[in-house]
Write a structure and sequence with these properties.
Elements lengths: L3 H5 L3 E7 L6 E7 L3 E4 L3 H26 L9 H25 L4 E2 L1 H5 L2 H29 L5 H26 L2 E4 L1 H4 L4
Antiparallel strand pairs: 1-2, 3-4, 3-5
Helix pairs in contact: 2-3, 2-6, 3-5, 5-6
Length: 190
């Protein structure tokens, strides 16, 4: 397994440059690797980022609305554990989504790996957490609830809606084409 240092500086070339005094040498890194760019217009890329934020915000809002309802399953210990897992996955997903949103148009190797594939992985993990929430609610409704109300089934459907919203982001990102740009075409700026 690579160290973080090696992952971050993948595609960089180390250069030892003498300092002005001539006694010491300074180590600098120059990017010589390839760049990744989403093969869409810049305006479409911006719209996709806005769409991803909207879908994520809708999923978070739906989750907060559903988990705050005064229904029996929200006091069920298994549901509480899965809701905690969902909150942790939200934090991770929000971090990855923010990295994705504020990334440059032309991505270096490390930036690419920490945005596009990461948003797909985080989306699958978060959708799984939502799925566990939905399953725990369904189990509570089927086995522990004496009355099955419309609100309980509506909450189950809302959790499934959260799964769909998050998976939609991952599906869209997975289908987006990325092109590789050689460093000679881009320039050697750091």
């Amino acid at each position: 397994m690579k160290r973080f240092f090696d992952k971050y500086f993948e595609g960089y070339e180390e250069e030892n440059v003498p300092q002005i005094s001539g006694k010491k040498r300074k180590t600098t890194y120059r990017y010589v690797g390839i760049y990744y760019r989403m093969d869409v217009k810049k305006s479409v890329q911006i719209l996709l980022r806005i769409l991803f934020v909207f879908l994520f915000g809708a999923a978070v809002s739906l989750f907060l609305f559903t988990s705050s309802m005064n229904l029996g399953f929200n006091n069920y210990p298994v549901t509480i554990v899965f809701q905690g897992l969902t909150v942790l996955s939200f934090i991770w997903y929000a971090y990855v989504l923010l990295s994705y949103i504020f990334a440059e148009r032309d991505l270096k190797i490390y930036s690419y790996k920490s945005t596009s594939p990461a948003i797909i992985k985080a989306g699958i993990f978060t959708a799984t957490a939502f799925g566990l929430d939905a399953i725990s609610v369904l189990i509570f409704i089927l086995f522990f609830s004496h009355t099955q109300t419309r609100n309980q089934m509506f909450c189950f459907i809302q959790y499934l809606g959260c799964v769909v919203l998050i998976l939609l982001i991952s599906f869209i990102e997975n289908k987006l084409p990325y092109i590789k740009i050689l460093n000679s075409e881009k320039g050697n700026e750091i």
